[in-house]
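Lab notes, practical 5.
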Amino acid sequence: MQIKPEGVQCAAIFQDIQQACSMARSKTSKKWMNEHVNDPYVKKAQLDGYRSRASYKLIEINEKDKIIRPGNVVMDLGSAPGGWSQIVAPWVGDKGRTIASDILPMDSIASVDFIQGDFTEESVFEEILKTLGDDVVDVVISDMAPNISGVNATDQFSSMYLVELALDMARNVLKPGGNFCAKVFQGVGYEEYLKDVRSSFSKVLIRKPAASRPRSREVYIVGKGFKG
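Output from the prediction step:
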């Protein structure tokens, strides 16, 4: 048996992992595309003029839990392509505000202030606060999700990291009594995260909107009554 030098062995193993991840992504992407094209909510969004099928998720949540009301100041994290901001802006009306942020670009929406960048970076966070001005935030919403690799453990870790960042932002900007809504994927770290949310909100609900694909592990955690 030929023994490869340690460095060569590591390189070979790394290449195998990369290839496995690439194959997983390819299979996941094809399956997702097939589902996406045939998804009734995708077709409905196109007919209704919504940027994303995710709009219907927030619509259903708000119908049940009334987390967003006219006159509210709402912060939308991970906002691109704008499916949530698009419906929030009319809900809050002229007396409210919608401040959206994402690493990705987002086409402008009337009455929505958009800040592009990573809000965990100090410069972007400061820009958000500058845009907010003297206003206080009534609601923080997050539909953030990582780029899917196809490797479950990696994807779960990435998704939990993002939702923890959303909760940190909520704790920094929400006014006492404010509300929070974030997409979370059930799996490793989920129960601990749920417990963490409950420590900061008077009431916590778990929602699985009809527009969320049944096989998906995603749920939405709704926190009401921020303890401040």
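Observations recorded by the TA: The first strand starts at residue 73 and ends at 77. The mean pLDDT is 86.
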